[in-house]
Amino acid sequence: GLLAGPDGIARCFWHGNLPDYLHYHDHEWGRPVADDRRLFEKICLEGFQSGLSWLTILRKRENFREAFAGFDIDKIAAF
Question: I need a labelling partner for 42 at 20 to 30 A (CA). Which of 17, 26, 28, 56 fits?
Answer without folding.
Answer: 17
